[in-house]
Design a protein that fits this description.
Length: 118
């Protein structure tokens, strides 16, 4: 049962690949808030906020390979699987793989033939 207070958090950190800045996003929910679509809704609002209020070239998220719920949530928001990073984290005495999901540029901001700005 949910009883007041925060249900979780969504966060971002700015990082870069060379000179290109981008945002890495993530969410964490209290156990009793999981499985209700709350995380997907929060991440969708958060991603829309980032694109509306910041210069965003790229968004990405790194998810532990076993966290299928978070991977599905990000797919629902529009992220796609780009790669698996081997031993990207360390937990319980061993390296843990992570799935990198990306949500490049939104269609209305992308450069290319379909944008009319190429």
């Amino acid at each position: 049962m949910l009883s007041g207070g925060a249900l979780g958090i969504v966060a971002r950190r700015r990082t870069s690949a060379g000179r290109t800045p981008y945002w890495n996003v993530g969410a964490q929910l209290r156990p009793e808030a999981r499985g209700r679509g709350i995380g997907t809704a929060a991440q969708h609002l958060f991603v829309d906020h980032l694109f509306a209020h910041f210069y965003v070239v790229r968004l990405e998220a790194d998810i532990r390979t076993g966290n299928v719920a978070e991977q599905q949530s990000l797919e629902n928001v529009g992220f796609t699987c780009e790669d698996v990073m081997r031993a990207a984290g360390f937990r319980d005495g061993r390296g843990r793989d992570a799935v990198m999901r990306g949500d490049g540029a939104r269609p209305d901001t992308a450069e290319g033939p379909e944008s009319g700005r190429a």
